[in-house]
Amino acid sequence: MKKTDLIIFFSALALFGTLWLILSLRHTAGSEVVVSVDGVETAVYPLDTDLTVEINGYDGGSNTLVISDHQAKITWADCPDHSCVHQKAVSADTETIVCLPHRVVVTVRSGEENGIDALTR
Amino acid sequence: MHSQGRRGVRHLALLAMFSALAMILSYVEILLPFSFGIPGVKLGIPNLITLLILYLEKGTGKNAALVRLTDAGIVLLIRIVVTGLLFTNVYAILYSLAGGLLSLVCMFLISLSDRIGIPGCSVLGGITHNLGQLTVAMFVVSQLKIWYYFPILLFFGTLTGFALGILAYMIISRRGVRDYYDRFFEG
Ligand SMILES: [Zn+2]
Fold it and tell me: Is the CB of A104 inside 8 Å of chain B's CB atoms?
């Protein structure tokens, strides 16, 4: 154990603290849910309207998106890992649910911006 | 010639032992009910084995730096491919490879320096491990939004890395381990 070890450890924690602080200061309630499949935006739904909808993911996969009580959640999916189903409901700006096998990304945004964050391939 | 052959066999046995240990740690990691919300993204507990190989071999002073890198690399690849096929899927193999290889290169470069100790090396290895996994995830879904997970991964990568680093340091500084390891490369 050297002094540099502690410096590295605490700098990494400080970096985390700073990022976390910035994110929570920018934390604003979202107003719409954006669904993208394989980098392409496929649908936008308002957060204030309750809704249950099927997302057609990459390679024939399917995810059920439920919006209720100003929150969005994936309640069912036929992907192998079901990690998307276990992710917590999202409601604030930039919060995201990902289903990697189906290449589905569900993101909340505040609605002011409408830039597409998809990477160009 | 004869003694070199024996040394080769011992070296092989050692790598096999480390691979088995790494697979056990991989399995432990799979059993842990811990999810970042991104499938396949893990804490990086098997990084402990990479640390042990790099620093134990450095300690003996008998193996060239490049041998340390290839030893750790071979064990990493065996562990990822075997556990990937046994317990998980192709995605998980992809993430483990990206995270494992990136952190291996990072930790190897750091291990060349005497100014940074094992815990610091391990912290940076843990962070690069998660960076590699996030980068692969980003390309899989073609979305930059996935960096939303970076702060939380940074946090857990740092804590896990530090804890594993201290553990590796404690293991390596035990005289018994040191002597046992030295004997492998003698005669
Ligand atoms: Zn899923």
Answer: yes
ipTM rounded to 2 decimals: 0.84
In which band, very low, low, confident or very high, does the pLDDT at B3 lie, cut at 50, 70 and 90? Answer: low
Q: Cα–chain-centroid distance for residue B69? A: 11
Contact assignment for A38 to B142 by CB distance below 8 Å: yes
Alpha carbon B42 to its chain centroid, in Å, reads 12
Nearest residue, CB atoms, B38 vs list A23, A83, A117: A83
Nearest residue to B12 via CA among B51, B59, B67, B83: B67
pLDDT in tens, B105-124: 999 999 999 899 999 999 99
What's the pTM?
0.79
Q: Give CA angle at B179 (B60, B165), nearest 5°.
A: 65
DSSP state of A71: E
Closest Cβ–Cβ partner in A19, A38, A96 for B145: A96
Question: Is residue A74 in some structural domain?
Answer: yes
- Residue A107: is its pLDDT beyond 80? yes
State which residues form the domain around B106. 2-32+40-184
Cα nearest neighbour of A103 on chain B:
B141
Query: How many domains are there within chain A?
Result: 1
Longest dimension (CA), chain A: 56
> CATH number for the domain including A45?
2.60.320.10
